[in-house]
């Protein structure tokens, strides 16, 4: 038996925490065992339950810890779904210690509120019990996985393995302990999102007039704020039962008008932030003397312009839409191609602008972010086609983006990282040069419905619930098939107007506000890129087109170009040029000539929000598949169980060795608590074994999608800066020969 001195030296810290947690539970259980009140007995049973669970958890933990290293990427980068649950267990123990200490310190006080603390202790006991259940399921997954493989593909069907997890009590993860596994600074934002989801669902699924909705909203807000258990029940049921339309509607909140202005207020300023509409015209690239035709995106919705957003910390020579009176920096030698995340069904470059502006400042390199069409209206392969087309356009017209194109790097997060990798594989197939490097953040690499330890994290993830994940993947893979049934179309054709991203919808709604917009020092416009000079050759090289000189006295040419512009959410530069015929640098001086009515702006916003909420309710009411949130359902539809796509452009992990060997250098960035962690680890291991240049980074304490929290969480901000540094390493501009 070890002495106290030996224990303090040799026992790992987590074991010390386990011992302290068990002692605290024993102490509190002994204190309340003689308390005959209802709350006293509930406290006693809760402490005894936690004590029993810790005794049952330790053998499971030791068993998993003994083999967990087999699944790591390498010795220097420990991380996989099994390790993630060990970290969650450690976090649960720390949370339990805090709750127990709180009881120990206050239980003798006359101000001790036994009824209140009982709920907190019971939530902690349920948390420990659920973590124990998760560890038992990890043992089952190990038995059904091949040696050193993270995905359970042997001896059982996916539905059998998923059904085993139905006994996990998800409610405790979304109640009082919500966010316990993450760093403390991000718990507040996560609780706010959870609360917002519960409140938004009440409005989305309720019937009645707007007045009754407003009244109910106040009541439900109070209910969910004061009762975490009710909030947890609502959020879990939403995650299990809500369809993809609810997911899109909820995530649309990040695209609302009020959020449109947030990046320009709190994020680093950008000299250039504009959207460019690229018409789908034939593009031919000349690669080593061989002409390669780039396919025009046609799947599902036919020919439609591709939207991209250009962000640059500095205005640079040659940038499309920029006059010559403004002081310009020389073209950058690099260009960053970005694809946003959003589960293939939501968000846009605008909602990711928060960290893109930060990257633009850190890198001093123009960023071109692609707004691809979204599922389920535009499922696979539409997004891939548009990204490939926009990339080819950028290769041919990089000078219009303020770059020489000497080094082009691709960067994407989540679904965007998947699409960017698929685009690189497509480039290899058709002979187009790939980007010189890829930065891929928390990327899903296998879209098949195969369980893994990290994917089990969806059972307790506040941002990526299990039902949300499966329905987004289903919408991306099966969207055309579902729309065929809904629209009765033989070929799955869908009206183009149903595929607008949230940003497009909000921009069209905001056109009426253009008279109320206040000029700012930042230039933010939407440019429809078309023929600026008359040429008859359809295969003309667009890079030879020069912008008209705005400094001369001839204003007709200037307004011909301006007629091609479509107002963006800021609309500043265009309005100034139309009114005063002055360059963009004079915009601040012209601000007095604009009528800016805050009351009118707010009134218009509220009116449109009311109309949008009414439309959402009408859509929900007219649907034959109404949702009953209080009835537990299996969130997995039969077709999702059968979802095992081996198409490498859907699941890059399934690509052939020959294709994977030709991928450019990659830096894969993820977090320990990411449901896509095993996807990243497995993909990185496979590519490394083929001899590719790949680096894997795994951070602790942050959730999937942490880049979007860079302004509200210090750790997320630091992680975003670390991402920028890795992207800078991929550019490696210092190694290039000096410009002549």
TrEMBL record:
InterPro entries: AB_hydrolase_3, AB_hydrolase_fold, HSL_N. It comes from the Eukaryota. SUPFAM superfamilies: alpha/beta-Hydrolases. Residues 336-443, 644-707 form the Alpha/beta hydrolase fold-3 domain. Pfam families: Abhydrolase_3, HSL_N. Residues 18-320 form the Hormone-sensitive lipase N-terminal domain. PANTHER family: HORMONE-SENSITIVE LIPASE, TRIACYLGLYCEROL LIPASE. This is Hormone-sensitive lipase isoform X2.
């Amino acid at each position: 038996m070890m002495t106290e001195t030996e224990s303090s030296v040799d026992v790992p810290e987590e074991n010390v925490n386990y011992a302290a947690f068990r002692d605290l539970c024993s102490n509190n259980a002994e204190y309340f065992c003689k308390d005959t009140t209802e709350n006293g007995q509930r406290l006693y049973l809760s402490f005894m339950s936690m004590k029993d669970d810790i005794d049952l958890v330790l053998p499971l933990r030791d068993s998993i810890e003994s083999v967990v290293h087999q699944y790591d990427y390498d010795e220097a980068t420990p991380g996989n779904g099994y390790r993630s649950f060990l970290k969650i267990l450690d976090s649960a123990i720390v949370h339990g210690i805090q709750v127990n200490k709180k009881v120990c310190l206050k239980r003798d006080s006359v101000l001790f509120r036994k009824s209140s603390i009982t709920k907190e202790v019971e939530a902690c006991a349920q948390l420990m019990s659920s973590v124990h259940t998760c560890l038992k399921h990890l043992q089952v997954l190990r038995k059904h996985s091949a040696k050193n493989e993270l995905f359970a593909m042997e001896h059982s069907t996916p539905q059998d393995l998923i059904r085993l997890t139905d006994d996990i009590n998800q409610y405790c993860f979304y109640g009082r302990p919500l966010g316990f596994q993450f760093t403390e600074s991000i718990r507040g934002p996560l609780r706010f999102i959870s609360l917002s989801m519960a409140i938004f669902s009440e409005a989305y699924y309720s019937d009645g007039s707007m007045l009754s909705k407003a009244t109910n909203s106040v009541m439900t807000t109070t209910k969910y704020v004061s009762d975490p258990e009710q909030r947890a029940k609502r959020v879990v049921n939403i995650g299990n039962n809500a369809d993809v339309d609810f997911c899109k509607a909820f995530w649309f909140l990040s695209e609302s008008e009020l959020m449109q202005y947030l990046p320009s207020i709190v994020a680093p300023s950008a000299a250039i932030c504009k959207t460019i509409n690229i018409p789908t015209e034939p593009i031919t690239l000349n690669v080593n003397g061989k002409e390669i035709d780039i396919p025009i995106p046609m799947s599902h919705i036919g020919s439609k312009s591709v939207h991209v957003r250009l962000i640059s910390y500095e205005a640079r020579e040659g940038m499309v839409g920029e006059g010559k009176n403004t002081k310009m920096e020389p073209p950058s030698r690099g260009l960053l191609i970005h694809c946003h995340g959003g589960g293939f069904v939501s968000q846009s470059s605008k909602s990711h602008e928060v960290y893109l502006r930060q990257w633009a400042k850190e890198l001093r390199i123009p960023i071109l972010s692609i707004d691809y069409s979204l599922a389920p209206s535009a499922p696979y392969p539409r997004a891939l086609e548009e990204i490939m087309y926009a990339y080819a356009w950028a290769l041919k017209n990089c000078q219009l983006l303020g770059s020489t194109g000497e080094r082009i790097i691709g960067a994407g997060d989540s679904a965007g990282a998947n699409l960017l990798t698929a685009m690189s594989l497509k480039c290899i197939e058709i002979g187009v040069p790939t980007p010189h490097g890829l930065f891929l953040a928390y990327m899903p690499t296998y879209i098949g419905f195969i369980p893994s330890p990290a994917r089990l994290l969806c059972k307790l993830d506040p941002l990526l619930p299990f039902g949300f994940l499966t329905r987004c993947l289903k919408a991306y893979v099966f969207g055309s098939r579902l729309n065929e049934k809904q629209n009765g179309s033989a070929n799955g054709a869908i009206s183009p107007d149903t595929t607008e991203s949230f940003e497009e919808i909000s921009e069209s709604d905001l056109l009426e506000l253009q008279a109320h917009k206040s000029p700012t020092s930042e230039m933010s416009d939407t440019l429809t890129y078309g023929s600026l000079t008359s040429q008859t050759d359809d295969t003309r090289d667009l890079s030879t087109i020069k912008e008209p000189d705005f400094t001369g006295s001839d204003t007709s040419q200037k307004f011909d170009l301006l007629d091609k512009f479509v107002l963006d959410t800021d609309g500043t530069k265009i309005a100034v040029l139309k009114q005063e015929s002055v360059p963009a640098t004079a915009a601040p001086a012209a601000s007095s000539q604009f009528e800016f009515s805050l009351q009118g702006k707010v009134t218009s916003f509220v009116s449109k929000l009311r109309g949008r909420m009414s439309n959402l309710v009408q859509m929900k009411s007219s649907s034959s598949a109404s949702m009953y949130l209080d009835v537990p359902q299996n969130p997995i539809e039969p077709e999702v169980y059968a979802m095992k796509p081996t198409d490498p452009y859907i699941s890059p992990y399934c690509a052939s060795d020959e294709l994977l060997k030709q991928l450019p250098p990659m830096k894969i960035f993820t977090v320990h608590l990411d449901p896509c962690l095993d996807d990243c680890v497995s993909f990185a291991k496979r590519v490394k074994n083929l001899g590719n240049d790949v680096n894997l980074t795994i951070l602790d304490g942050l959730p999937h999608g942490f880049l979007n929290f860079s302004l509200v969480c210090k750790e997320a901000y630091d992680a975003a800066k670390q991402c920028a540094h890795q992207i800078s390493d991929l550019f490696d501009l210092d190694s290039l020969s000096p410009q002549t």
